[in-house]
Design brief:
Structural class: alpha/beta
CATH architecture: 4-Layer Sandwich
CATH topology: Metallo-beta-lactamase, Chain A
Largest sheet: 6 strands, mixed
Strand order of the largest sheet: 1-2-3-4-5-6
Number of strands: 11
CATH class: Alpha Beta
Number of helices: 7
Order of helices and strands: EEEHEHHEHHEEEEEHEH
Shape: globular
Number of domains: 1
Length: 249
């Protein structure tokens, strides 16, 4: 589903997304830089989801074999469990925050809360989260080039350790791909997981205060193609009032 000339929404299951793929997949975004493509988040990577995502990329007018980069916002399974399969299929280099890389590379199901979520039935018994090499661990200040577009890594821990947001510039507008750090309405996502940290979440939002962007592309829920900054401003207003932004769940 084309959002703009630069971005297409190509994944997201009916549980946490728009039903473009299946199951618990988070939103997956295709970044179209013209002569290069990148994917931001990849969902669970089931056979059905992969084929639906590939079809969505094709429907957006792009060749899936040209996906050269996979950027992960964080290591939770609904965003990243399919990373190994996408890396193997397309040869895409996998990028994630340096702090998140060890859990992804070792398939640490406790640190990623995958084991706990599967035990609760959030993921099916047949769900898998294989270990995946992180080809490029990201550090503050890192910028990746995808054709005509630049993607700046923004550390945003809080929802979990090693969470990343990405600022996409050089196209028809500026996009903040916020993962699970910020949602429409100025909401955040607090969970009773081992490394969800409220104070870190608030600090990450404060750190975004000087970032200007047009479109907000979160990991779940509504997308704002214009006025995206207003959603960050709503969260910051709550923090300035010594309150906590509302939680997505």
């Amino acid at each position: 589903m084309r959002l703009t000339d630069d971005i297409a929404l190509v994944g997201g299951g009916p549980i946490f997304g728009f039903g473009l793929t299946v199951g618990t997949d988070a939103h997956c975004y295709l970044v179209d830089g013209g002569d290069a493509l990148a994917l931001i988040d990849c969902g669970m990577g089931s056979d059905e989801s992969m084929e639906l995502l590939v079809q969505a990329v094709t429907s957006a007018g792009c060749d899936p074999s040209r996906i050269g980069t996979l950027l992960l916002t964080h290591y939770h399974a609904d965003h990243a469990a399919g990373a190994r399969r996408y890396r193997d299929r397309f040869g895409a280099r996998v990028c994630a925050a340096a702090e998140a890389a060890p859990a992804i590379e070792s398939a640490d199901h406790d640190r990623t809360s995958f084991a706990a979520a599967r035990a609760l039935g959030v993921f099916g018994a047949d769900a898998a989260y294989p270990a995946c090499p992180v080809d490029q661990p990201l550090h503050p200040g890192d910028v990746l080039q995808v054709g005509r577009l630049s993607i700046r890594y923004l550390p945003t821990p809080g929802h979990c350790a090693g969470h990343a947001a990405y600022l996409i510039e050089g196209g028809e507008r500026t996009y903040l791909c916020s993962g699970d750090a910020l949602f429409a309405g100025g909401k955040i996502y607090l969970q009773a997981t081992v490394d969800c940290d409220l104070q870190a979440s608030l600090d990450s939002l404060r750190a975004l205060a000087d970032v200007e962007f047009d479109a907000l592309l979160p990991g779940h829920g509504p997308i704002a193609l214009t006025g995206g900054r207003l959603h960050l401003d709503a969260a910051l207003a709550a923090i300035r009032g010594l309150s906590v932004p509302g939680s997505l769940a």
